[in-house]
Amino acid sequence: MRRAFTAVILALGIVFAAPAFAQIDCKLGEVVIKFSHVVPPRGHPKGDFARMLAERVNTEMNGRACMQVFPFSQLYDDEKVMEALILGDVQLAAPSLSKLEVYTNKYRLFDLPFLFEDMDAVQRFTASEKGQELLGVMSDFGVVGLGYLFDGLKHFSADKPLLVPSDGAGLKFRVQNSDVAVAMIEAMGASAQKLAFKEVYGALQLGVVDGQENSWSNIFTSRFFEVQDGITETNHQLLAYVVFAPKEWLESLEPDLREQFLTIFRETLVKANGQAAKTSEENRQRIVDAGYTVRELTPEQRQQWSDVMRPVWGEFEDEIGKDLIDAAEAANVTKNN
């Protein structure tokens, strides 16, 4: 099976090992914009967005601004990047929202299981007044959210088939540093282990954990499917990022430079989010083409998962805010009809 996977990645020209990056050299006098992230530079929504943004900045703002991208945690992992951003050591970062619990509980909204029925609902909510308000909740720490970057909905995998929640009972699942995720895993009778993203493959391979939950792009680009029985397409939780910048740095830019950068940023973000759904489906298909198992749930099975995990919402309602939860749920078309 691994041989089949190797053939697929060779045909696609995908390289998973960290390449020797030729970092662009910034000119004297240019504003340096460092973007640190944890994923590959291609084939992942975050990596694709960072690369696309850097290409436009370095072409259209040449001589005034210079953008450097550091993928694969070359500068910081998601646990440390917000601290670096607050200190001004980097100018852009897009950590998983679950990494922000040390600063605010509001982003726990996006970790609630089975809150959004599809990515269209996610986009309706994030474009709404309540969704836009959430971009500013980190202002007390000196950073501002510039926009939402979407990876996709998450899916479960384990070292055994998962079709109903009880199939996960007694297993240990890796989760992000998220109390909501822990409560979600415990609701299915399993135990949760918080691990850094870079530790997940090894933990699955060595049996430190039995399973994980992630987007198609993370599952594919990090090869988690190689060390799992299969992936169950649950679409149970959102994986999204807010792209943050230091407020002081942004305000220090000359007005015309700042407006040019923000215009490029907004246009690139729209394009990247438009490509994210396509990238997600392509990565799902690559897993299938490599000979690995993807299990689809029946409507009845999916309802079982939702029923088991829906009580998690109540555990975090006070700290997130019922108004935010209601606004997010209202973005689902079927629940409005």
Can you give a write-up of this model?
The chain has 337 residues and is α/β, with parallel strands linked by helices. It has a domain at 2-97 and 135-150 and 243-289: Bacterial extracellular solute-binding protein, family 7 (D-Maltodextrin-Binding Protein, domain 2, 3-Layer(aba) Sandwich). 41% of the residues lie in helices and 17% in strands. The chain has helices at residues 2-12, 45-60, 81-87, 119-127, 129-133, 179-187, 200-206, 216-221, 247-252, 255-289, 299-309, 312-320, 322-329; strands at residues 31-36, 65-70, 92-93, 143-153, 155-158, 172-175, 191-194, 211-214, 230-233, 238-246, 294-296. The strands form 3 sheets. The chain has a 6-stranded mixed beta sheet with strand order 7-6-8-5-9-11, with helices on both faces. It has a 3-stranded parallel beta sheet with strand order 2-1-3, with helices on both faces. The chain has a two-stranded antiparallel ribbon with strand order 4-10. α6 links the parallel β6 and β7. It is globular, with a radius of gyration of 20 Å. 42% of the residues are buried. Residues 1-20 have low confidence and may be disordered.
Q: How big is the Rg?
A: 20 Å
CATH superfamily of the domain at 2-97 and 135-150 and 243-289: Bacterial extracellular solute-binding protein, family 7
Q: With helices defined by DSSP (H or I, 4 residues minimum), what is the helix count?
A: 13
Indicate the proportion of strand residues.
Answer: 15-25%
Please, what is the average pLDDT?
91
Would you summarize the structure shown here?
The chain has helices spanning 2-12, 45-60, 81-87, 119-127, 129-133, 179-187, 200-206, 216-221, 247-252, 255-289, 299-309, 312-320, 322-329; strands at residues 31-36, 65-70, 92-93, 143-153, 155-158, 172-175, 191-194, 211-214, 230-233, 238-246, 294-296. The protein is an alpha/beta fold and 337 residues long.
